[in-house]
Amino acid sequence: MAVERPDEIRVLHVDDEPDLAAVTGEYLQREDDRITVGTAASASEGLDELAEETVDCVVSDYDMPGQDGIEFLETVREEYPDLPFILYTGKGSEAVASDAIGAGVTDYLQKESGADHYRLLANRIVNAVERYRAGERVERAERRYRTLFEEMNEGAALHQLVYEGGEPVGYEILEVNGNFETVLDISAEAAIGRRAIDVYDVEEPPYFDRYVQVAETGESMEFETHFEPLGKHFHVSVFSPQTGQFATVFSDVSEENAVEARLCRERALYNAQSEATLDGHLVVDDDRTIVSYNSRLLELWDIPENLIESRDDEAVLDHVVEKTADPDEFRTLVESLYDQPNAESRDEIELTDGRWFDRYSTPVVGADGTRYGRLWVFRDISDRKARERELSRLSERLELAVEGANLGVWDWDMTTDDVEFNEQWAAMLGHSTEEIEPHLDAWERRVHPDDLPVVEAALEAHIEDETPLYDTEHRMKTADGDWKWIRDIGRVVERDENGEPRRAVGIHLDIDDRKQREQQLRLFRQAVEQTAHAVYITDVDGTIEYVNPAFEPVTGYTETEALGNDPSILNSGEYDETFYEDLWETITDGQRWRAEMIDRDADGDRIVLEQSIAPITDADGDPTKFVAVAQDVTQRKEAERELERARAQLRQVIDLVPDLLFAKDRDGRFLLANETTADAYGLSSAEVEGKLESAIIPDVEDAEQFREDDLAVIESGEPMVVPEEELTTADGETRILETTKIPYEVQGSGEDAVLGYARDITELMEYERELEAQRDNLEVLNQVVRHDIRNELQLVVAYADLLRRDADGTESDYAETVLEAARGAVDIIETARDVTEIMLQSDADPTPVDLPTVLLEAVEDLRSRYERAVVTVKEPLPDVEVLADDMLASVFRNLLTNAVKHNDSDVPEVTVTARAEGHVTVSVADNGPGIPEERRDAIFDQGETGLDSTGTGLGLYLVETLVDRYGGTVTVEDNDPTGSVFVVTLPVAE
């Protein structure tokens, strides 16, 4: 059987929605364990419950079938006028509230959701019941007071201050006891309802200032006085039962009744005050006899009337001790205080039922120092302790929650914009609290500028009471300059009387990881949706539940066609059951399966899919779904076949190359060797590739040198050309190679390697040696021709000229013929010398040569050799330099000589012109027989002679050879009216 607690609050909740009533009851009992809740589904059931059970408070819905909440309230008030009644409705309005107040409702509350709302309802219930019970206690106290008031020996009167203009001007008598007339000899009829000045027939209210002080401050007062209008000496005690009122207890303090009257008066005053308080009072004399107590004491400790009336303090102590959580400690303190009569004590004690009392004890000492016993005062502080415990628990939980959840907390004083941030708020952004200014600016400056307008709009909407909470997600700058995603939740918790916000609190949640995951999920989904590979997901039975957009172009099946089917729609019939059993065994075992499969698309065409199938597992590792990624490699496989064919063809080409082609890695291992390379080692390509060169090369010294060159190319990253190097072949023959090696990166692995190409120049070297010997012989011949023969011819020319001059007639003609032949031979020798020098010298870069100087010297030389010839130079010659060398004079000398020697005119005429227009053009025109068009190209060939000439043909061959080396051209044109024009173009030197 449950024991009823003295502080239990019994609530009757009337609501036509039983589930809502049950939830409300559960919340109320959680919020305050003193509350017990009974329910009724209608007003009629509620009235039955009130008739059968003791109820401390009624909580009623408004909108109910039958009687509504207001009608139910009116019925309750007829029977229970003061019982707390709270109208708790979901359809509130000002009209309903007004009607409820008019019907005597205790409180009015509109239904809302959330624990805070139920906490508010519980507080309203507790407050209403405590007021109700306090009123009952006051009422009991008033009854006791009325009894004492009527039965005391002293006269007593209750007075009311009279105000005018807000200031007290007098007082009137509201009530008197029976001894009022006895003590003052004034009847009740003559006193009640009249002002004091009229009752006592005085001009000023008696003791007005004192009474006003008591009535307005509530402080008790007592004094003795001689009241002249009555001619008596009185002892007067004054106290105020409520503001604006005061009660006087007075007695005639004549010698025969002074002591008794004072004791009675003090006892009455004490009793009245004691009964009006919420504290339990107990006075025990030095003999441990109970002198006085109040009803609150009995209520707090549940002391039976017969026990307290025994006046036995020790018996009462035994009763009380059993109700305390620590009886020994309680009794020890009590006994120690009785052993120390003058000691004072105050502490808090816990009871077995969970209540807490404040205990105060002090000696009772009279004005003359006489000790009359000990006063014990007990106050129920259970609510306060519960609140303290709850606050402590909430505080601890909040701190744990804040720390455990890493919540940043902010508290904003909206009147000053000062903000208090906790450590987690600062640490979340990589700061310490000392680095964060306690002001709103510290937050605003750190919000991402792109997010700030939205954040401020959300905050403003909440401040304007448009939203229940301020709740945003935005980025904030951290100490290292990065941006972190924060969820910011807050609420205005305090407003002034005008509804203006004064204070707001909130929290920061670090959602950066969540945002990153969301972004990753978005990226993943986009990747799956946008990938060109077909992606599909099945359940554990293989039923397709999802396909991505690429599934249709890869397989030909639409999403509608695929969903609900299984992957067998792609089955090509290429594989037996064992293949698929292996697949299912692999993926159901939690492993990934991967292979290339030949399938059939929706049109029945053969497709090759490279598929990867993996299980999606739960926390226990058991597959819940399967995901497959299929890449259409049909074209790739065909391309691979084509590539393989191309590779085979390329290999065939490489093997047909007559030179050595090879590639080696850093270790000297052959990556590639064509058949020519393999033949050198007496092996096949397959036998060479993959082998170290040192393992197959016949000559170790060759291998070391090759290895050194290979590493030099790999390390430097620069090509190397080895003009000549020896290789001893497998048959012992030494071959000379011209080798080029370049750095090479192996495709796929990125490994450093060297690629080589070697040409066998053994025969070429033999030919060059023979050619060099011939060159040496030609050089000797050239020296003989240039020196010995030319010198002899010069003698012939000299003596022939002398004979011509001294001879007459026929002899002179003979001498002239000899002279011309000798001179021709000298020209031939000069030309042969020039040709030989060109053949012997290596190519040299042209240099700037002054054109006018060289050209005029050639003209003067011609004039000196051929006196009968007419040579004309059209002035002015361009003052330019051309790109040539010291052989340029031979070009002009041979052209001029050719124009005279092969001229059949009686008087050979030669005209020289030159012009410069981006390049230099020199023209040599003659009046000879001309050159047929069909022979104009052939005359520049080596050994070709002029028209009807017996010359060697070296002159024009030399001209073309030199001009071509200079980067110019030489051509032949017709001269008008007869003859030829040789045109030479030469590049101008910059």
Automatic annotation (TrEMBL):
Modified residues (4-aspartylphosphate): 61
Coiled-coil boundaries: 629-656, 757-784
Record-annotated Histidine kinase domain positions: 784-990
Cross-referenced SUPFAM superfamilies: ATPase domain of HSP90 chaperone/DNA topoisomerase II/histidine kinase, CheY-like, PYP-like sensor domain (PAS domain)
Keywords: Coiled coil, Kinase, Phosphoprotein, Transferase
Reactions catalysed according to its record: ATP + protein L-histidine = ADP + protein N-phospho-L-histidine
Domain PAS residues, every copy: 394-466, 520-565, 646-717
GO BP terms: phosphorelay signal transduction system; regulation of DNA-templated transcription
A Pfam family reported for this protein in Swiss-Prot or TrEMBL: PAS_3
UniProt-recorded Gene Ontology molecular function terms: protein histidine kinase activity
Domain PAC per the UniProt entry, residue ranges: 470-523, 591-645, 721-773
EC number in record: 2.7.13.3
Residue ranges of every copy of the Response regulatory domain listed in the record: 10-126
PROSITE patterns membership: HIS_KIN, PAC, PAS, RESPONSE_REGULATORY
UniProt name for this protein: histidine kinase
Species annotation: Halorhabdus tiamatea SARL4B
Taxonomic classification: Archaea, Methanobacteriati, Methanobacteriota, Stenosarchaea group, Halobacteria
